[in-house]
Amino acid sequence: MRLSLSADEAPHLPNFAVSELRSSLLTWYAQLGRDLPWRRTRDPYAIWISEIMLQQTQVKTVIPYFERWMTLFPTVDALAKADLQAVLKAWEGLGYYARARNLHRAAQTIVEQHHGLFPQELDAVLALPGIGRTTAGGILSAAFNQPLAILDGNVKRVLARLMALDVPPNRALSALWHWSEAMLDPARSHEFNQAFMDLGATICTPKKPACLLCPWQRHCRAYNLGTQSELPMSEPRAPLLHKIIGVAVIWNDRNQILIDRRKPEGLLGGLWEFPGGKVEPGETIEACIKREIQEELGIEIEVGDRLTVVDHTYSHFRVTLNVHHCQHLSGDPQPIECDEIRWVMARELDQYPFPKANIHIIEALQKSAV
Ligand code: SF4
């Protein structure tokens, strides 16, 4: 395998091919492009929200979140003024919560520095939290038809096949940007970038690309070499780290449950959760829960029956949550390792934003109460 490919080494795209690629893609898009809620507007705020939600998340998952979000926070100003907890609640289940925190902070920046109007200058957009080059290009091309290229996962995959890229895409980013920019139709960047993403999402899919339906088949190097199923090349993956976690659903005498809010920084920052922690080597789940609760909240509990076991995979590790009912015995809980703690009734849990793995615990609680 070649180690990397720079823009200078990138094979050249002949002019006739570029013009055919542009026109065939735009013709295909006019007939078969997807009708998506954020494509019915040129409002940069709505397009920005959709671009951020679509990072790491599929279109069909995003649509209901997007529609609810635009009802809850219809403008930059509404988002800037919203409480962070309400923003996280609206994001609950989408994962990668830094995206929601960055949206909230960026909306406040737009209000403070740009009079509440989404900026149109690339540098100003790139200065907002959570917006990189491809997201900025996506927003500015879709909202203002600015001739800026994009390079999201779909576009990387299509380009890797079209050009028969012989290194993993992340080792050829400058070459990929070079191709994406060379291919962009500068007069119709608004449609072109959307069409490019649609081609990757619906035809040039990760598995079994539908080459016979593809408007770029004639120029596609991978198709002509018969290597489309082997591309893009992937990096060898290290096995995911697996963490075993003990989790406590702690009840008091008033039938309330103890929940805590994570610190604002880092993974799942600002979300609520059931307390617990990592099992040490040689430790039982019950001993781990007792120790973690003493260390994190400064209280004594009795660990009771198992409620459920939840497996969840994050981008760089996976967890198994071993969840037990527990009874509060003594001590006033203190937020030693978290930002805030609350005793709440089980029926009140859905008012708080929880990460997905904890939502499975809430569902198990609801089932066990039936
Ligand atoms: S011909 Fe096949 S591999 Fe090539 S761009 Fe089209 S769908 Fe992708």
From TrEMBL:
Keyword Metal-binding found: yes
Molecular function in Gene Ontology: 4 iron, 4 sulfur cluster binding; 8-oxo-7,8-dihydroguanine DNA N-glycosylase activity; 8-oxo-7,8-dihydroguanosine triphosphate pyrophosphatase activity; adenine/guanine mispair binding; metal ion binding; oxidized purine DNA binding; purine-specific mismatch base pair DNA N-glycosylase activity
Residue ranges of domain Nudix hydrolase in the record: 240-367
Residues making up the signal peptide according to the UniProt record: none
EC number of this enzyme: 3.2.2.31
Cofactor: [4Fe-4S] cluster; Mg(2+)
Annotated binding of Mg(2+), by residue: G276, E296
Entry keyword annotation includes tRNA processing: no
Binding site for 8-oxo-dGTP: R262, E273, F274, P275, G276, N358
Reaction(s) catalysed by this chain's protein: Hydrolyzes free adenine bases from 7,8-dihydro-8-oxoguanine:adenine mismatched double-stranded DNA, leaving an apurinic site
SUPFAM superfamilies, per the entry: DNA-glycosylase (SSF48150), Nudix (SSF55811)
Keywords, alphabetical: 4Fe-4S, DNA damage, DNA repair, Glycosidase, Hydrolase, Iron, Iron-sulfur, Magnesium, Metal-binding
EC top class named in words: hydrolase
GO biological process, one term: base-excision repair
InterPro entries: A/G_AdeGlyc_MutY, DNA_glycosylase, Endonuclease-III-like_CS2, Endonuclease3_FeS-loop_motif, Endouclease-III_FeS-bd_BS, HhH-GPD_domain, HhH_base_excis_C, MIG/MutY
Function of the protein: Adenine glycosylase active on G-A mispairs. MutY also corrects error-prone DNA synthesis past GO lesions which are due to the oxidatively damaged form of guanine: 7,8-dihydro-8-oxoguanine (8-oxo-dGTP).
UniProt similarity note: Belongs to the Nth/MutY family.
Protein name: Adenine DNA glycosylase
Origin species: Myxacorys almedinensis A
Gene, per the UniProt record: mutY
